[in-house]
UniProtKB/TrEMBL annotation:
Keyword Oxidoreductase: yes
InterPro entries, per the entry: Aminoacid_DH-like_N_sf, NAD(P)-bd_dom_sf, THF_DH/CycHdrlase, THF_DH/CycHdrlase_cat_dom, THF_DH/CycHdrlase_CS, THF_DH/CycHdrlase_NAD-bd_dom
Keyword NADP: yes
PANTHER family noted in UniProt: C-1-TETRAHYDROFOLATE SYNTHASE, CYTOPLASMIC, C-1-TETRAHYDROFOLATE SYNTHASE, CYTOPLASMIC-RELATED
Upper taxonomic lineage: Bacteria, Bacillati, Actinomycetota, Actinomycetes, Micromonosporales
Subunit structure: Homodimer.
EC number: 1.5.1.5, 3.5.4.9
Gene3D superfamilies xref list: Leucine Dehydrogenase, chain A, domain 1 (3.40.50.10860), NAD(P)-binding Rossmann-like Domain (3.40.50.720)
Domain Tetrahydrofolate dehydrogenase/cyclohydrolase NAD(P)-binding: 135-274
Binding site for NADP(+): 161-163, 227
Name of the protein this chain belongs to: Bifunctional protein FolD
Keywords, sorted A to Z: Amino-acid biosynthesis, Histidine biosynthesis, Hydrolase, Methionine biosynthesis, Multifunctional enzyme, NADP, One-carbon metabolism, Oxidoreductase, Purine biosynthesis
Pfam families: THF_DHG_CYH (PF00763), THF_DHG_CYH_C (PF02882)
Length: 278
């Protein structure tokens, strides 16, 4: 029996808990989403983040810039939001148009408002194990594992992918939860031999259908971070159907990690509003 982990249900619980805490706060936590250009997928993601902000009872501060915006224009918007006391969290939606330098812009966000956990300072705090805001997708994966009673301490975890947004911080968080962590990537020789060691396999490679039954140890927990729009609908990096009877549990796409990313953004915004910043 392979359990499909209901990420939507876990995300709903997390969001309800955030909303209950927000109800007791005055002033309300505020999140600013910054969208540059008109990539349709980005527009959909930002819209669902803003909906989640309103449903949590928080204040929504959205800024939209044209695809032609310059580095200085985006930087000026970020600086204004950084100085605005009603804005507790700032999210610069990625990817940015190709003429902009994302790392330099992300680092305009003060660590105390970095609800995406992507600034150099937040990454450093995570690497050192010091308090700070953590990236939403990896912290959502940890939350999902905990919700299913999956033990991390002493377990073997393999992360496929090493991006700054997901793979790298995911490996750090699993280490801090006392897993023995291996990071695999597109140059890993004999990927299946590596992933078959995993009790917890987190796939964030961005390659549609990369992982199948041959990659999975019987009884493993498989977390699919991939998201691909195909003719057959949204699919992940994992060939889910093949894992029936092999994995103990798998996250679906959609309805797995994606909703958790948004739930953890609400958690981070609440934390940014209520805690002494890093
Ligand atoms: N600065 C920044 N921070 C991000 O966290 C960030 C980003 N940029 N750029 C793009 C990625 C992607 N991402 C997702 C969020 C929610 C779903 C989500 O809710 N997915 C639903 C399906 C939604 C749909 O139908 O498309 C699901 O998996 O069930 C997916 C992906 C956040 N990202």
């Amino acid at each position: 029996m392979t359990v499909t982990i209901d990420g939507k249900a876990v995300a709903q619980r997390v969001r309800a808990q955030v909303a209950a805490e927000v109800a007791a706060l005055d002033p309300k936590p505020g999140l600013a989403t910054v969208l540059v250009g008109d990539d349709p997928a980005s527009a959909v993601y930002v819209a669902s983040k803003r909906r989640a902000v309103r449903e949590a009872g928080m204040s929504d501060h959205h800024r939209s810039l044209p695809a032609t915006a310059t580095q200085a224009e985006v930087a000026a918007v970020l600086e204004e939001l950084a100085a605005d006391p009603a804005v507790h969290g700032i999210l610069l939606q990625l990817p940015l148009p190709a003429h902009l330098d994302p790392d330099a812009l992300i680092d305009r966000i003060p660590a105390a408002k970095d609800v995406d956990g992507l600034t150099t300072r937040s990454a450093g705090l995570l690497a050192r194990g010091e308090p700070g805001l953590r990236p939403c997708t990896p912290s959502g994966v940890i939350e999902l594992l905990e919700s299913q009673g999956v033990k991390t301490r002493g377990s073997r975890a393999v992360v496929v992918g090493r991006s700054a947004l997901v793979g790298h911080p995911m490996a750090e968080l699993l280490l801090q939860h006392d897993a023995t962590v291996t990071v695999a990537h597109k140059h890993t020789a004999d990927l299946a031999a590596v992933t078959r060691e995993a009790d917890i396999l987190v796939v964030a490679a961005g390659v549609h259908g990369l992982i199948g039954a041959e990659h999975v140890k019987p009884g493993a927990t498989v977390i699919d971070v991939g998201i691909h729009r195909t003719a057959d609908g949204l699919q992940g990096d994992v060939r889910r159907a093949e894992l029936d009877g092999v994995a103990a549990r798998v996250t679906p796409v959609p309805g797995g990690v994606g909703p958790m990313t948004i739930a953890m953004l609400m958690v981070n915004t609440l934390r940014a509003a209520t805690m002494d910043g890093p």
